[in-house]
């Protein structure tokens, strides 16, 4: 009987201990540590990708909770996805430490502003942040968007505000960023890809 | 990558040069080890340092940073003079036989048409001779002195092993040994692959470094083959996807070149970008440009885009010059910019010349940082001891910092270096009030749209007409967006061969870019991703990892652009009659009625071999370009010194001061003076990553900080002895732009080289430190680097510059 690692977890999770299943002659294709199976058997497994280099290794993220409305998911473990044809379950020293990136003490938690000339951050609400940024953007765009060049050609460019786009964002966020910025008239647009 | 990660296992010879895959891409590098283990493939590493890639290689040779074209040009000379090339391939699949304008010249380091004042070339003579039939003229005997093959031979005849060794510092015997190993793959059934990264791109001759290897791969017949190709090992998990979405000024999604002032209307714009075939019977695939562009306009403006208003052409901004990251900071430094957004980007740390970047940011009215982490850039105004000396009261920039989500907190697709688009799922919410990038951008856009609706303002049309069909406007879903990117029919789409037959019904997702139209009946956000979400659903989420052929193609895992093709130019893996050059590694073949096999053919499926349709379908000539007039700095790559060179001349052109460094590279006013000279800064410096760190991110991650806590630089035993430096000493490394302090590591892995009669020492500088993080605070390495980029794409020259070093 062929049993995958995750099927094995599920069998174990259904109430029998892993070792007694093994004694009965059912063993997973590869050996695994019994202790880990208990911990992860109760976790939700989500397929994701390592965000570091562009090998784009598949990762499995384990969270507490079962995705029910009142259960707040918390990431407890990240490991390589053995199904992924490229990384086949492996992760490098960077990828193996992904938990500490997700849980970094330097994660930003709320919007902040540093006022002109100030030496400190000030917490603000999302509404305040978006309203203030949008006011800056509109003022600069309305003042500096060039509708026609010296030859009278319609050019509709706004080159006094620039944007550096993330190479860690997904394709969907990247596409939407391009769609919005180009149509505001932004030409000063670049990405990490260049450097 | 023209090929993909797993395909590395199919190679007979792997070259790692301009990269260090074992440390920067460990889990991809495993496929190189598989090739060594299972195919008895050999691995060559050429690098200024004996890296961990070198440690598992079969042959390693040192090289001076910034001299790769001299080395590779020498390989070309070896292959041509020893006649170790794949003749049939070169003759038929490249432009070797094409005749070039009689006026084309290369003299004393400069190509014809050089304008010293503008530092650029006029390309009047860099072109094919065109016959009366309108097609490019060819000489199939390859004997005409003006055919590309003869010009190539002549150009590289100067790259003798003596001159190569003198310029690169690579010992001649090591260079010749590598030439021999490479030459073996000229056999039709042998392939070589190249794994390069930023060690090739981050030079003022970066694009030409890669071009030189492309020439080698074409001469050897390795493009399109399993285990062959040109493989850029890219840096970030989705840097390929963001490049494809074209978040840079030159192009719109799908590499559609952006309108400029010269493109006065849609007709002019399209005509310039829709080429005519240069040889008979060729696919000339870019002839479809109007379909791709019109479908993008429909995706963005929907019903507001009609043939009456040029599909909204005037709403797109026209570009009047360079807006790459260096040009932007130059403009900012001149006080020409007021606002700036950094989305997951830390330019204070990652752009050249930190001082110039910080001074520029201080001239802004507002800066918005959207990031999961507290980046150095977000605190450019804040004093952090000697690591960031600044007086905040003198910085009037208003800075906003918005918390964004990380990979684990978002459902999205990423595109790997191998062009495979893979879907992933959200595991948990981000911390605190953090939001996804989509939600943040949507909030800003919807606010602006409301303000323009209420108060009016300049040019509201593109803002008001932008399609926003998302069910929750403030939260466009990744699925909705990927469907928009992939494309759909707005009206019924008919078969071009039978106008009564509907191939896609209105409202359905298209199956691929072949179904796109230029009459407004289709919409597609990015044509090269066309079909990734078809009527069959989200193909990027496919997880069938089966590999029935053993080649590692896994065609049902995710979706590779274009058209789920895993190896680009795969028609070139077969001879003219359609038989694979190596039947044991069949990628595709002609079955008698159609192309088929183990990949999606890069060829019209019914193009019989006797029709003479050549494999490089994206060029109007159908063949690959050994001679490439599109390059800014020459149709053939030539060795030029880095802008900061330890030599006082270019050994290839010792008597021409104009040809020391890339004559066509852009240098801003005032920056030439910031370049250091060898008399003050005698050592070559190069920057790189460590296996334990990722750019400027993992300094925020505890385990990485524990593994590599403190900033260090690496020097050779010889230099250490000369300067009285021992491992563990604190040293100061200075360039003409600033200094960093770090711990010295004295290593046998860096050797002093003999270059042009002098000893050249290398200082190796890992990049990962800064003043924000959980590592020990450090100096930003890019304090040292010069503000000059590659002549073609403006990638800064981080990999070869000059420093001095002293013990403190």
Give a short summary of the structure.
With 195 residues, chain A is an alpha+beta fold. Chain A is built from 6 helices and 9 strands; from the N terminus they run αααβββαββαβββαβ.
Describe the protein's architecture and organization:
By secondary structure, chain A is an alpha+beta fold. In chain A, 31% of the residues lie in helices and 21% in strands. Chain A has three domains: 1-42, no CATH class; 43-104, ADC-like domains (N-terminal domain of TfIIb); 112-194, no CATH class. The model of chain A is unreliable at 11-23 (pLDDT under 50). Chain B folds into four domains: 1-235, Dimethylsulfoxide Reductase, domain 2, CATH 3.40.228; 250-319 and 477-539, no CATH class; 325-416 and 420-464, Rossmann fold; 657-807, Barwin-like endoglucanases (Beta Barrel), CATH 2.40.40. In chain B, the strands form twelve sheets. A six-stranded mixed β-sheet of chain B has the order 27-29-28-33-26-32. In chain B, strands 3-2-1-8-9 form a five-stranded parallel β-sheet, with helices on both faces. In chain B, helix 4 packs parallel to helix 10 (206-219) and helix 14 (325-333) crosses helix 16 (354-361). The radius of gyration of chain B is 27 Å and the shape is globular. Strand 8 (161-165) of chain A pairs parallel with strand 12 (339-343) of chain B, so a sheet runs across the interface.
Keywords:
A: 195 residues; three-stranded antiparallel β-sheet; two-stranded antiparallel sheet; 6 helices; elongated; B: 808 residues; alpha/beta; Rossmann fold; 21 helices; 23% helix; globular
| Fraction in helix of chain B | 10-25%
Report low-confidence residues of chain A grouped into runs of 5 or more: 11-23
CATH class of the largest domain in chain B: Alpha Beta
Average pLDDT number of chain B: 97
Largest sheet of chain A: 3 strands, antiparallel
- Count of alpha and pi helical runs of chain A: 6
Largest interface: A-B, 118 and 161 residues
The rough form of chain A would be described as elongated
CATH superfamily of the largest domain in chain B: Dimethylsulfoxide Reductase, domain 2
Radius of gyration of chain A: 25 Å
> In total, how many beta strands of chain A?
9
Number of strands of chain B: 33
Largest sheet of chain B: 6 strands, mixed
Oligomeric state of this protein:
heterodimer
Query: Radius of gyration of chain B over alpha carbons?
Result: 27 Å
**CA-to-CA gap between the ends of chain A?**
51 Å
Which structural category do the helix and sheet elements of chain A fall into?
A: alpha+beta
User: Which sequence of SSEs, written as H and E, runs from N to C of chain A?
Assistant: HHHEEEHEEHEEEHE
Portion in helices of chain A: 25-40%
Strand content of chain A: 15-25%
Side by side, the strands of the main sheet of chain A go 1-2-3
């Amino acid at each position: 009987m062929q049993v995958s690692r995750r099927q094995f977890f599920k069998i174990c999770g259904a109430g029998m201990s892993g070792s007694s299943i093994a004694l009965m002659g059912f063993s997973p294709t590869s050996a695994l540590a019994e202790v880990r199976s208990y911990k992860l058997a109760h976790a939700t497994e989500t397929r994701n990708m390592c965000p570091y280099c562009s090998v784009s290794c598949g990762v499995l993220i384990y969270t507490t909770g079962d995705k029910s409305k009142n259960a707040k998911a918390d990431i407890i473990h990240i490991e390589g996805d053995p199904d992924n044809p490229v990384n086949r379950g492996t992760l490098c020293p960077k990828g193996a430490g992904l938990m500490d990136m997700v849980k970094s003490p330097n994660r930003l938690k709320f919007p902040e502003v540093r006022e002109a000339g100030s030496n400190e951050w000030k917490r603000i609400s999302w509404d305040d942040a978006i309203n203030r940024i949008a006011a800056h953007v509109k003022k600069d765009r309305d003042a500096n968007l060039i509708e026609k060049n010296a030859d009278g050609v319609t050019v509709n460019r706004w080159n006094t505000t620039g944007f550096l786009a993330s190479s860690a964002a997904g394709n969907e966020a990247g596409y939407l960023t391009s769609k919005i910025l180009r149509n505001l008239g932004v030409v000063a647009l670049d990405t990490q890809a260049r450097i | 990558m023209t090929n993909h990660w797993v395909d590395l296992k199919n190679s007979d010879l792997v070259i790692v040069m301009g990269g260090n895959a074992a440390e920067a891409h460990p889990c991809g590098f495993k496929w190189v080890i598989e090739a060594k283990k299972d195919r008895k493939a050999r691995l060559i590493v050429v690098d200024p340092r004996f890296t961990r890639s070198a440690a598992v290689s079969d042959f390693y040779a040192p090289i001076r940073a910034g001299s790769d074209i001299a080395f590779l040009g020498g390989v070309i000379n070896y292959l041509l003079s020893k006649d170790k090339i794949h003749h049939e391939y070169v003759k038929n699949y490249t432009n070797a036989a094409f005749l070039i304008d009689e006026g084309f010249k290369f003299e004393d380091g400069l190509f014809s048409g050089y304008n010293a004042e503008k530092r650029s070339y006029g390309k009047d003579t860099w072109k094919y001779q065109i016959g009366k039939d309108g097609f490019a003229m060819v000489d199939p005997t390859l004997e005409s002195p003006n055919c590309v093959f003869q010009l190539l031979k002549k150009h590289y005849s100067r790259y003798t092993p003596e001159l190569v060794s003198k310029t690169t510092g690579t010992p001649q015997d090591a260079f010749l040994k590598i030439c021999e190993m490479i030459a073996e793959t000229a056999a039709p059934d042998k392939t070589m692959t190249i794994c390069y990264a930023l060690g090739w791109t981050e030079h003022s001759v970066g694009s030409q470094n890669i071009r030189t290897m492309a020439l080698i791969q074409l001469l050897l017949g390795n493009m399109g083959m399993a285990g062959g190709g040109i493989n850029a090992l890219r840096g970030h998990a989705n840097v390929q996807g963001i490049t494809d979405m074209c978040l840079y000024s030159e192009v719109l999604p799908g590499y559609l070149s952006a309108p400029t002032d010269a493109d006065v209307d849609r007709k002019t714009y399209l005509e310039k970008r829709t080429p005519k075939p240069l040889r008979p019977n060729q696919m000339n695939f870019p002839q479809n440009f109007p379909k791709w562009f019109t479908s993008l306009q429909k995706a963005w403006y929907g019903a507001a885009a009609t043939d009456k208003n040029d599909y909204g052409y005037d709403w797109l901004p026209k570009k009047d010059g360079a807006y790459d990251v260096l040009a932007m900071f130059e403009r900012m430094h001149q006080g020409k910019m007021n606002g700036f957004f950094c989305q997951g980007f830390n330019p204070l740390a990652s752009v050249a010349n930190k001082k110039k970047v910080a001074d520029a940011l201080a001239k802004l009215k507002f800066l918005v940082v959207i990031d999961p982490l507290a980046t150095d850039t977000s605190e450019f105004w804040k004093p952090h001891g000697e690591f960031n000396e600044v007086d905040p009261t003198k910085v009037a920039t208003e800075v906003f910092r918005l918390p964004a989500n990380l990979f684990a907190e978002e459902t999205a697709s990423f595109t790997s270096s191998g062009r495979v688009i893979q879907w992933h799922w959200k595991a948990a919410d981000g911390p605190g009030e953090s939001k996804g990038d989509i939600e943040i951008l949507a909030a800003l856009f919807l606010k602006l749209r409301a303000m323009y609706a209420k108060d009016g303002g300049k040019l509201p049309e593109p803002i008001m007409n932008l399609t926003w069909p998302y069910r929750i406007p403030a939260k466009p879903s990744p699925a909705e967006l990927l469907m928009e990117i992939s494309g759909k029919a707005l009206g019924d789409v008919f078969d071009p061969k039978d106008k009564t037959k509907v191939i896609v019904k209105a409202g359905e997702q298209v199956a691929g870019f072949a179904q796109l139209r230029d009459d407004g009946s289709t919409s597609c956000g990015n044509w090269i991703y066309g079909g990734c979400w078809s009527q069959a659903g989200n193909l990027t989420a496919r997880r069938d990892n089966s590999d029935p052929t053993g080649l590692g193609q896994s065609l049902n895992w995710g979706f590779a652009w274009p058209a789920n093709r895993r190896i680009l130019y795969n028609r070139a893996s077969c001879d003219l009659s359609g038989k694979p050059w190596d039947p044991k590694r069949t990628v595709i073949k002609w079955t008698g009625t159609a192309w088929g096999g183990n990949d999606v053919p890069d060829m019209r499926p019914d193009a019989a071999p006797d029709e003479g349709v050549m494999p490089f379908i994206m060029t109007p000539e159908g063949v690959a370009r050994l001679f490439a007039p599109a390059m800014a700095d020459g149709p053939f790559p030539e060795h030029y010194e880095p802008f900061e060179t330890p030599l006082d001349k270019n050994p290839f052109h010792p008597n021409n001061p104009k040809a020391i460094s890339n004559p066509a590279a852009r240098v801003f006013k005032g920056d030439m003076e910031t370049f250091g000279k060898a008399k003050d800064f005698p050592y070559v410096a190069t920057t790189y990553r460590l296996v334990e760190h990722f750019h400027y991110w993992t300094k925020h991650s505890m385990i990485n900080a524990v593994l590599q806590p403190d900033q260090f630089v690496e020097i050779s035993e010889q230099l250490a002895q000369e300067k009285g430096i021992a491992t563990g000493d604190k040293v100061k490394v200075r360039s003409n732009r600033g200094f960093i302090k770090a711990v010295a590591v004295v290593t046998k892995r860096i050797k002093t080289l003999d270059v042009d009669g002098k000893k050249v020492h290398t200082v190796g500088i890992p990049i990962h430190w800064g003043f924000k993080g959980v590592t020990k605070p450090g100096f930003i390495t890019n304090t040292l680097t010069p503000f000059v980029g590659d002549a073609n794409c403006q990638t800064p020259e981080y990999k070869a510059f000059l420093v001095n070093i002293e013990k403190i």
